[in-house]
Amino acid sequence: MDYSTNDSKSTSKKKVVAVVGGGLVGALNACYFAKRGFQVEVFESREDIRQAKIVKGRSINLALSHRGRQALKQVGMEDTIVSKGIPMHSRMIHSLNGTQSPIPYGKKGQVTLLLQRLHTPHSAETYSNTKLNFAHKLLNWSTETGAMTFLRADGAKEEIQADLIVGCDGAFSAIRKQFLRQSRFNFSQTYIPHGYLELTMPPINGEFAMKPNYLHIWPRNTFMMIALPNLDKTFTCTLFMPFDEFENVTTGDQVIEFFQKYFPDAIPLIGADALKRDYFCLPAQAMVSVKCSPYHLSDKCVLMGDAAHAVVPFYGQGMNAGFEDCLVFNEIMDQLNEDFSAVLPEYTRVRVPDDHAIADLAMYNYVEMRSHVNSKWFLFRKYVDNFLHIIMPRTIIPLYTMVTFTRTRYHEAVKRWHWQDKVRNYIVHSSLYKGL
Amino acid sequence: MDYSTNDSKSTSKKKVVAVVGGGLVGALNACYFAKRGFQVEVFESREDIRQAKIVKGRSINLALSHRGRQALKQVGMEDTIVSKGIPMHSRMIHSLNGTQSPIPYGKKGQVTLLLQRLHTPHSAETYSNTKLNFAHKLLNWSTETGAMTFLRADGAKEEIQADLIVGCDGAFSAIRKQFLRQSRFNFSQTYIPHGYLELTMPPINGEFAMKPNYLHIWPRNTFMMIALPNLDKTFTCTLFMPFDEFENVTTGDQVIEFFQKYFPDAIPLIGADALKRDYFCLPAQAMVSVKCSPYHLSDKCVLMGDAAHAVVPFYGQGMNAGFEDCLVFNEIMDQLNEDFSAVLPEYTRVRVPDDHAIADLAMYNYVEMRSHVNSKWFLFRKYVDNFLHIIMPRTIIPLYTMVTFTRTRYHEAVKRWHWQDKVRNYIVHSSLYKGL
Predict the structure, then answer these.
(1) Alpha-carbon span A270 to A364, nearest angstrom
(2) Does residue A284 contact residue A195 with C-beta atoms inside 8 Å?
(3) How many of the other CB atoms lie within 10 Å of CB of A322?
(4) Domain tally for chain A?
(5) Which of A141, A398, B10, B217 has the fewest CB atoms within 10 Å distance of its CB?
(6) A21 with A153, same domain?
(7) Burial call B41-76: b when 16+ CB within 10 Å, e when fewer
(8) Which of A184, A189, A190 sits opposite B286 (nearest CB)?
(9) What are the distances in angstroms from CA B187 to CA A351, B143, B180, B306?
(10) A48-106 confidence digits (pLDDT tens)
C-alpha cells in the first residue's frame, strides 16, 4: 500500500480517508467519501460483521425514517434498503385489561421502516476506491500527522497515514479516547436506571401473532414493554425496567407471576415455557446516553454516529441521527470545497446542538413512552396537536412529525415545540373557558 | 515490604490502604486511615511535592472554611493550618469608576481563611504506619484483587497488594479511568468557556497595595477579575474571561488598553510594565467541572476529592468539599465498623448528591459573581436575606452561610435555598404591595 501523503495538497494523489468502525454510520460514510473520489479505508476491529450471526437477546431493531432515508438516497441506497423494511404507521397501546388502542404517528403515508440488520458494508465495497479492513484493532493514532497503527488478527502491526480520520466506532469509541486527553473536550456518559431484555414472540400458524405494522406498547409507568415485527413473522418484545426490579425476578415462576400482573395478554403469545427460559438467557442490558463537544480534533479527525452521540433508543432516531451526520457533513463539504480545516469546525458548530437536542429528546421520550401514553390528558393533547396540524399545517407541526418525517434541525424542532406548546395551551384553555 | 494480605480478614495483620495522590485530599486521607491503625501507603506520581516551587501564574489560592476546618480538626491539624491563613470576611466590589463597596460574607466572626499552599504530606508522615512514596506512577490495578503496579523514577516496577485503594489523584484521575471501563458508570467533564490568568500585585512600601482581608472583585458581566491577599503582602489577581476574548489581546499595548477600559484602578497597583509582561507569561488556563457516580468500585476502590468531583473555583469550596469527603467517609467507617463492603456503597449513596450539588453551585456562582454582584436587585436581595437571617436566624439562613459556615449537607442547603427563595419573594412582594 502506498499511503504517502506528504504532499497532501497535490491533486495528483488521492487523499486518504480512514473510517474507523464498519457499522452502519461507518459504512455509509465510506460511500459518501468514496463517491467524492477519496481513497477510503474502513477499519473494523471485529471479523467481517457481514458473517456475524444475530445474537439472541441483543438485536434492538432499527427504525429508519425521513432523515435516514434522505442520507441513504444521496448515495443511491434508499430503494434497496427500504424494500427490506417493514412499514410501521402507528403505536398500539396495550392496556392492563387487554384492550388495544392505536395512536397514529403522523399523517397517512408517514411511516417509519423497521429494519433488522443492515449490511451497509456491502454497498461501500461497490466503490473501487474503497477497501474494507476487518479484524483491525486501532492501537494508536496521531492527531498531528494522521499516522495510525492497527493490530491485525495475525498479530502483525499495520501503519497507515490518513488525511482525515472519521471515528464511527460507536458509543465506546476508541477514537474518542484521544479527544478525552485534549483540553477543553466536553464529555458525558449517562446510564439510565433502566435495563432492557429481549424476548421473542413466535408466529401463529405462520402469521404474525399480533397486528404487524404497529409499535406495540405496554406502558406501565415505571417500566414498559414494546414489541416490533420482524420479517420472519416473529415479534421482538423488549422489556424496559429498572435494574433493581430485574433483580427481584429470579425464578421462572416469578417471571410468570410478573407477566400475569402486568402483561397478561402477552403470556400466551410468547408462550409460558419460552418466557420462563428466555427471560434468563442474558442479563438485562444497560443503556447509555453519550454527549460530547467538539466533534473534531484539529483538521485530522471527526466523530460521527454513536461515537459522537449515543442516544437511548426511545425516539427511534439513533440510526437516523447517525445517517444524517453523514449527510450534513457532506453538505458542508460542498459548501467549503472539501477543505478539512474549514469543514471540521463548521461541522462541530452546526451539528453539536442538533445531536444534543435529539439525545435530550430520546431521554424525554423514555419518560413519556412508559407513563404519559397512559394518561387521558396526554391523549387529549395529542388529539389537539393533530387537529391543529390539520387546520394549520404550516403553523402547528407535532414534535414527533418534525423529528421523524422532516429534516427540521433537531434543535429547531425542540425550540418550535416549546413555542407551539404555549400556543396550544392558550388555545385549549381559552376554548375551555369560552365553553367551546 | 511484606504486603501479603491473602488472609485479609485476619485481624493479626494490618489491612493495607493505598492512597493514590499525595495532594491535599490524599494527605488528609492518609492521616485518617493511619489514625485508624491501617497500614497506609501514599503514592504520588510527582517528585516530593513538598520541595516543588510555586509555579508563577498557576497558584489559585485555597479557601479554607467551616467544612475543611472540621475535617482537619478531627485529625488534630486545624490549629497549625489556621495559623498560616489570612482571614477574609468580606467581598470588596470595585466599580468601573474606582469606588469600592464591601459586601460581608456572613455574620461577624464568620471568616474564610486564605491559604497559599498546604504541606499536608508532612502531617501524614508523623504516623509511623504511613509511608509516602513519591515518583510512583500508577501503571495498572485490579478491581478484583487490589493488586497495583507502579513505575518508579528509577525505571523499576513495584507491585503492592491493597485492601482498599483510595483515588485522590485529582481532576484527571488515573484511578478513575478504570471506572470508565465499567458498565453503568456515569461521568461528565464540562469545560467552561472562560479561562483564567494570574497577575501579581506587589506591596507598596512593604504593605498590601489594597485592603487585605477582602476578596476584591471587579465584576464586568462577561468577565471579571478578583484579587486575593498573600502572606508576603502581595495580591494574586486572577482574570477570568472567555477564551476568545483572551485571544483578542495579543500585544502589551492592547493589555493596557483593555485594563484602562475595564480595570483602570488596577493598572498603577500592578504596574503597567509588569502587566504588559506577566499577561503573556502563561496562556490562559482552562477550568473543568467533573461529576461522576458511583464513587466506588466493588469493595476495593473509592474516589475522593477532585478525582470524584472537580468543581470550578467560584464558590471557594473545592478543597473544603474534598476535605469533607474524608470526614464523611470517616463517619461512615464508624457507623459500619470499617466493613469496606458496606462502607463504600453507603459513601456513594450519601456523598454523590452533595458533591453534585456543590459542583452545580460553583457553576451557578460563576455567573453570579461576574454579573449579579453588579446589580441593585441582587444587592437588595442580599440585604433582605441578611435582614431576615437576623430576625429569624433559624428559619432563614443565606445560602452562602449554609455552604461556607455550616456542615448542612450541600444538597440540603440547595433545597432549603429554593424554599427560602419562595418565602423571601413572598415577603418582599407583600411588603411592596402593602407599602411597607
Answers:
(1) 29
(2) yes
(3) 29
(4) 2
(5) B10
(6) yes
(7) bbbbbeeebeeeeeeebebebbbbbbbbbbbbebbe
(8) A184
(9) 22, 18, 8, 13
(10) 866 666 555 556 678 999 999 999 999 999 998 888 889 998 889 899 988 998 887 77
Interval B176-216: pLDDT, tens: 999 998 879 999 999 999 999 999 999 999 999 999 999 99
**Last-in-domain residue among A318, A339, A368:** A368
C-alpha distance across the termini of chain A, in Å: 75
How far apart are alpha carbons A411 and B331 in whole angstroms?
46
Domain that includes residue B311, residue range: 16-53+63-85+117-188+288-368
Q: Are strands B90-94 and B214-220 parallel, antiparallel or unpaired?
A: parallel
Domain of B35, CATH number, reads: 3.50.50.60
Listed residue (A165, A147, A161, A131) closest to A340, CA to CA = A165
Same domain? For B359 and B339 the reply is yes
Is there a single domain that holds both residue B72 and residue B149? yes
Residue of A176, A189, A287 to mutate for B, most B C-beta atoms under 10 A: A189
Q: How far is residue A89's CA from residue A275's CA, in Å, rounded to a whole number?
A: 28
Residue B327 makes CB contacts below 8 A (sequence gap 6+) with: B67, B70, B71, B74
The residues facing B296 across adjacent strands are B302
Q: Distance, in angstroms, between A185 CA and closest chain B CA? A: 7
Question: Looking at CA atoms only, how far is residue B170 from chain A in angstroms?
Answer: 15
Report yes or no on B128 lying in a domain: yes
Residues of B in contact with A180 (CB under 8 A): 189
A190 touches chain B (CB under 8 A): yes
Q: What cell numbers appear for B425 in the block?
A: 419573594
CB contact under 8 A, B187 and A188: yes
Helix (H, G, I), strand (E, B) or coil at A82: helix
Which chain B residues contact residue A188 at CB under 8 A?
186-190
Beta strands B235-242; B186-201: pairing state: antiparallel
d(CA A325, CA A32): 11
Q: Please, are residues B300 and B165 in contact by the beta-carbon 8 Å criterion?
A: yes
3-state SS class at A360: helix
Q: What pLDDT is attached to residue A116?
A: 74
Q: Is the pLDDT of residue B326 over 90?
A: yes
Cell for A228? Answer: 416490533
The residue in chain A having the minimum alpha-carbon distance to the alpha carbon of residue B287 is A184
Distance separating alpha carbons of residues A91 and A77, to the nearest angstrom: 27
- Phi/psi of residue B30, each to 5°? -55, -45
* Interface check B185 vs A, CB under 8 A: yes
**Contact of A21 with A301, CB cutoff 8 Å:** no
- Residues ≥6 apart with Cβ < 8 Å to A236: A59, A60, A61, A198, A199, A200, A201, A227, A228, A230
Last residue of a domain, one of B325, B343, B368: B368
CA distance B78 to B8: 34
Is A407 among the domain residues? yes
Residues B349 and B410 in one domain: no
Q: What residues form DSSP beta bridges with A223?
A: A220
* A338, A384: one domain: no
B80 and B124 housed in the same domain: yes
ipTM of the complex: 0.82
Q: Which three cell numbers stand for residue B311?
A: 468543581
Beta carbons of A87 and A111 less than 8 angstroms apart: yes
Answer yes or no: is B252 within a domain: no
Nearest CA in chain B to A195: B184
Contact B189 A188 (CB under 8 A): yes
User: Cell triple for residue A13?
Assistant: 494523489
Q: Is residue B104 part of a domain?
A: no
Q: Which three cell numbers stand for residue A154?
A: 495475525
Question: Which amino acid is it at A344?
Answer: L
One domain for residues B300 and B167: yes
A46 with A157, same domain: the answer is: yes
CA atoms within 13 A of residue A349's CA, in its CB half-sphere: 6
What gap in Å lies between CA A40 and CA A124, rounded to an integer? 9
Exposed/middle/buried for A97, CB within 10 Å: 0-12, 13-18, 19+? exposed
